[in-house]
Write a structure and sequence with these properties.
By secondary structure, the protein is an alpha+beta fold. The chain has 2 helices and 4 strands; from the N terminus they run αββββα. It has a 4-stranded antiparallel beta sheet with strand order 1-2-3-4, with helices on one face. The longest helix has 12 residues. The radius of gyration is 14 Å and the shape is globular. The termini are far apart. The relative contact order is 0.22.
Length: 97
């Protein structure tokens, strides 16, 4: 599943007895995106939130990958260049003289 920037991102998970650790989730993300470089990990903010991994791909594209912290499943990704913040950064850079 791909998460698009034009829709509201509401990725929630159903809590289970135990969460997997961040290292196990990073291994899962690396398996799905073999040439990725990890930029940032954001742990879940509450029991129903997903974990977020900000990565860059081999071609330099930025992605945010969402992982279920209980089942260690990649839920989706978001093209970081098309978030509100990503667009604002690009516009700022392009409009600077």
């Amino acid at each position: 599943m791909r998460v698009r920037a034009e829709g509201a991102i509401a990725l929630t998970v159903t809590p289970a007895a135990q969460r997997v650790n961040a290292d196990a989730m990073q291994v899962r993300v690396a398996a799905q995106y073999p040439a990725m470089k990890l930029k940032k990990y954001t742990p879940p903010v509450d029991a129903t939130s997903c974990a977020k991994f900000q990565i860059s791909l081999a071609d330099g594209a930025a992605r945010t990958v969402f992982v279920d912290p209980y089942r260690n499943v990649v839920l989706g990704e978001q093209d970081a260049d098309w978030t509100l913040q990503g667009v604002a950064v690009r516009l700022h850079g392009e409009l600077m003289i």
